[in-house]
Amino acid sequence: MPTSQYLSEQGLLVCAMLILALTALALAGCDESVNPFVESDRIYSVYGSLDMNADTQYVRVIPIDTSLIVREQGAIDASVSSTDINTNKRVQWNDSLFVFRDGSRGHVFYAPLRIEPEHTYRLEFVRSDGQASVAETTVPGIPSASIAEPRRLVFSSGAVEVTQNVLWSGVERAPAVIEMWYRFSGSPRSSFTDIRFEYPTDDRATAEPGWTVVVQLSEDRNKILENLRPENYLFLGVGMRLVILDDQFVPPGGIFDPEILSQPGAFSNVDNGFGFVGSVGRFDVEWVLDAETATALQFVLPKAHD
Fold first, then answer.
1. Which end of the chain, N or C, is more open, meaning fewer C-beta atoms within 10 Å of its C-beta?
2. Looking at residues 55-67, what average pLDDT do you find?
3. pTM of whole model > 0.85?
4. Residues 6+ apart with CB under 8 A from 172
């Protein structure tokens, strides 16, 4: 069984958001009076996400017994497979003992697998006696992005506020992450530099179908100034990434409350087990600004620089 010194954070994005629940399960063993597993038929705690942008998928597997012993050393009694319900294609997963950043060890099963949008995957975690935990996740569909024309508001002081709407059709819930980047280059033949930052995800800009993100071009320029002087670089364009989770990834009350998530089974899609196996997609769109907008932001376009 191979051992890795580093587990890809991208492969376990959802696990990071569920780490509080995972930690709570481990701490629960300190008090037998609150042992939630006594006389339980739950087999495993499993945590992970199927990633549309990855060639290899990862899921962490923790066997559970009634004494709350987490067996993390050596081989564990578990066989993991996934089935694409849409095609009936089955894939057997491999076990690895990973060393995490904090020095702890854990069994992470992996498989070379590209998941398909809108397909449903069933993951089965089977013990040698035939007992199993099962989880299903349906992969998000691929949204489309429409870029509106920039809007410029000129104040009496001469200041200019520039915004631009991006409508993502097919996105009906708040994305997990909205990331922006502005791309610059020192010369037409030099490598480019991306200035990146995240946008809040809790507000919906309009009531129309889909999810509209208002790009605050003027405000973003102030963030760019913290990293470089845009007038000294060629401006190549703007980009946006949405990270979208599957529809099951909605915690109780829609809020990631540690106290709620710390209750075993409070947030789980695993039959005969604990934990969560979801799916995630990352979707990018890039565009260029027209000359008038770029000039208002004091960005230098390549043709103007030449």
1. C
2. 84
3. no
4. 209, 210, 211
Per-residue pLDDT at 150 exceeds 60: yes
Convert the pLDDT of each residue in 283-298 to its tens digit.
Answer: 999 999 999 999 989 9
Residue 250: DSSP 8-state: -
Give CA–CA dist 15/46, Å, rounded: 9
Architecture of domain 144-244+284-305: Sandwich (2.60)
Contacts of 255 (CB under 8 A, 6+ apart): none
The CATH number assigned to the domain with range 3-140+246-279 reads: 2.60.40.10
d(CA 233, CA 182): 12
Assign residue 24 a region (left: φ > 0; alpha: ψ between -120 and 50; beta: otherwise): alpha
DSSP of 165-176: EEEEET--S--S
Give the span between the Cα atoms of 34 and 42, in whole angstroms: 16
| Topology match between the domains 3-140+246-279 and 144-244+284-305 | yes
pLDDT in tens, 31-50: 433 344 444 578 999 999 99
Q: Which of 153, 147, 119 is nearest to 237 (CA)?
A: 147
Residue boundaries of the structural domains of the chain: 3-140+246-279, 144-244+284-305
Query: Can you give the pLDDT at residue 21?
Result: 39
* Residue closest to 171 by CA, chosen among 115, 244, 120: 244
Burial, 255: exposed, middle or buried (Cβ in 10 Å; 0-12, 13-18, 19+)? exposed
